[in-house]
Fold this protein.
Amino acid sequence: EYVKVLRKLSFPKIKNFLMNKILKILFCLLFLQSCSQTQKPKSMENQTVKNPYYSRTDKTKLNVSNAEWKKILPTDLYYVAREADTERPFTGKYNDFDEIGEYYCAVCGNHLFRSSSKFASTCGWPSFFEADKDGVSYKRDSSHGMERIEVLCKRCDSHLGHVFNDGPEPTGMRYCMNSVSLDFQRDSEKK
């Protein structure tokens, strides 16, 4: 097939044709390689021991400066939760995760989601169709030339992700969250 095309094209056209094919192949290889580099999650046990604000029972609103959070939180969590960064798609520890239990804010321990509201969205981040109404708040986000709704932890105002109106029933919502901003407790671990 390529030989027939090449015979019909002049040398400059052949050169451009081949360069385009080579660039497409290189782009695909780079994309696949970046998707395969998964980040190793840091143990939440180590994070919560050093974090004096982490509690799954205290609902008191926190007013902690980013300078203080930067001293306490692991680097990856700090940049996502406090600077509204985003982890790479398909790399989060909860993206392909189907355990039964509760999801909490990795920064402060506030309850956010029940596993029964999690669904496979194939967007690259863990997705939920319903949040704990007492656990999250919302803020308009006009960054990156887009209009979105940012989801924040109601207790510590940490960035969790965004919510979209393309989710499944019964709510039609898709809470697209960063795994690093979430902490999980299996039902079997509850006391």
Summary: The chain is about 30% helix and 20% strand. The CA atoms of residues 95 and 126 lie 4 Å apart. The radius of gyration is 21 Å. The first strand starts at residue 101 and ends at 105.
